[in-house]
Amino acid sequence: MEDTLTIAGHPIRSRFFLGTGKFSSYAVMKESIVHSGAHIITVALRRVDQAGTQENIADFIPKDCILMANTSGARNADEAVRIARLSRAMGCGDWIKIEVIPDNKYLLPDNAETIRATEILAKEGFIVMPYIAPDLADARRLVNAGAASVMPLGAPIGTNRGIQTREMLRILIEEIDLPIVVDAGLGRPSHAADAMEMGADAVLVNTAVAVADNPPLIARAFSLAVQAGRQAFLAGPGAEKTCADASSPLTGFLR
Amino acid sequence: MSGNSFYDQVVHWEQAGLTERIAAARENDVLRALEKDSCDEHDFLALVSPAAAPHLEAMARKSRALTLAQFGKVIFLYAPLYLANICDNECVYCGFRHSNRISRKKLSPEEAVREARVIAASGIRHVLVLTGESRVATPVSYIAECISRIKPFFTSISIEIYSLTTAEYVELAAAGADGMTMYQETYNEALYRSLHLKGPKTDYRGRLESPERACRAGMRSIGVGALQGLDDFRRDGFFTGLHAAWLQDTFPDVEIGVSLPRIQPQVGGYTSRCAVTDRDFVQLLTALRIFLPRASMTVSTRERVEFRRNLIGLGVTRLSAGSRTEVGGYSQADNSEGQFSIADTSTVDDVKAMVEGSGYQPVFKDWQML
Q1: Are residues A26 and B155, on separate chains, in Cβ contact within 8 Å?
Q2: Pairwise CB contact (< 8 Å): B252 & A105
């Protein structure tokens, strides 16, 4: 069965996206990317260094991947827009993940500023992937603003707590026609499978891979879990029930 | 925690008998704090108390796990750049104090650029600009000019200079500074007065509130700390954490960090009256991490290389590298005395190798000037 994820007209090889922060070395990061099979790789522009004398993180992203810069460090829409423009000027392409985080304690995003940045950058031709706290009205605003996908959080960044925003995610998956990429908080492959079984179009993981004892191995495990979750979703699993249901005691008389 | 100034918090805790409360903390308070997902200031008090000392390994495990989750396996590297050592203050523990007979020096903006060039060639992209306190010799306009001249060499510039007004912080932010560090030295107001004998730095409250002014001026990152060894480390450590937490709550869009400078020998021979052992240091560091999972934590080259190596993985996120604390120390042969003795004389490459050898990634760039 043909089942290709398409974002802004681009076919995407894998529904597992990988972030590049927090790894113990660029070599481990690169090996993890390869093992993950990920096609979309996010990189914080604040870490990209084309002018310095040290190694540049962007040089370790395989050339056949889509490098999607993120606006980590932006506190408002204006800063996100400036980071995105810098990213394009530095040769990082048109894919941009908008992160506007004015809260350094919980790292929760500012949806209103994210929508404002999306509006500006989409008009400038960026492929905009906004990271938000799941909210239906805001997701609809992002659709109207020209977003290429919506990236709601499963749990706060780095918490590895799995899907804590289930009901909100379920509503976004049902109501929003853009690809829904569950981003942040997924700590185990089973969390990723869970998101995919719910009908998410893709997931993005960083911390859970980067800080594992064996990042390349868990990257592969995440990738397989995403595939399994997607296939389970497509297969239409049977409904869950809380008790056994062997007969039809109420309507049996109709036979 | 709220209020118009962190000073109110200091007064509150002193009136509440902080010293006695630290001494009275019980083992059960520590165990409860270690079980929690997030700690309040009462839990933090227990973690810096003598009652927590037997639980150092458990604190280290928790601190390590929190640091890994928040920062991953990376250590950020930076270097200091001293513009001048001319100082009007009489801080009894400082090598730059006014009455010390040392060679006084101030870099011209051109000399500052030469220093910047050498630092940048070593791979460093984040620099911390420092001066002594002399509004005549090193006015804000001079510091602003130096910052704007060295800006092309770095991706982030922080300042650790004398206390400024909000408008002056705005001026330096406009010149290119995006971060500010201010050590209160000690939060003990009476002790502070006895250690700072002359000069503008005698204004305890003015210094205490300068991070607040820098936040209001739009600085992106703020670092606070006490010079460990001046007062009981448990008291000053507690106030350091409380100060960082108050700033984090009051200015949520600013990245807050803490530093743990420990007093070192310097010209003038001040002897610490409250020695801080390595065990004390680790207790404080891990307690701070458990209380402030998101705060960056800096340990400078004041500490020995072996000790710094062991702290990687316990909660530290930032290390200085290849540091010279003399004015002109990077590019001039006949440089002046340093502000303090550095214990880790490793080069940037040495520190990079040490971080890599510990299974961590040394990160040189973590901001892009906008």
Answers
A1: no
A2: yes
Please tell me which residue of chain B has the smallest CA distance to A49: B365
Q: Are A187 and A212 in contact (CB under 8 A)?
A: no
Catalytic positions of A, written as ranges: 97
Given CA atoms B136, B141, B147, B148 in this order, what sign does their dihedral have? negative
Q: Which amino acid is at A23?
A: F
Q: Containing H/E element for A225? A: helix A215-235
B180, two tokens: 């500010």
Size of interface A-B (CB pairs under 8 A): 86
pLDDT computed for residue A1 by the predictor: 67
Query: Is B126 in CB contact (< 8 Å) with chain A?
Result: no
pLDDT band at B274 (very low <50, low <70, confident <90, very high): confident
B189 C-beta neighbours (distance < 10 Å), count:
14
**Encoded amino acid at A214, one letter:** N
Per-residue pLDDT at B264 = 74
Contact A49 B365 (CB under 8 A): yes
CA distance B365 to A15: 30
Is the dihedral angle over the CA atoms B201, B206, B211, B217 positive or is it negative? negative
Strand, coil or helix: B21: helix
Q: What is the pLDDT of residues B217-235, one digit of tens each?
A: 999 999 999 999 999 999 9
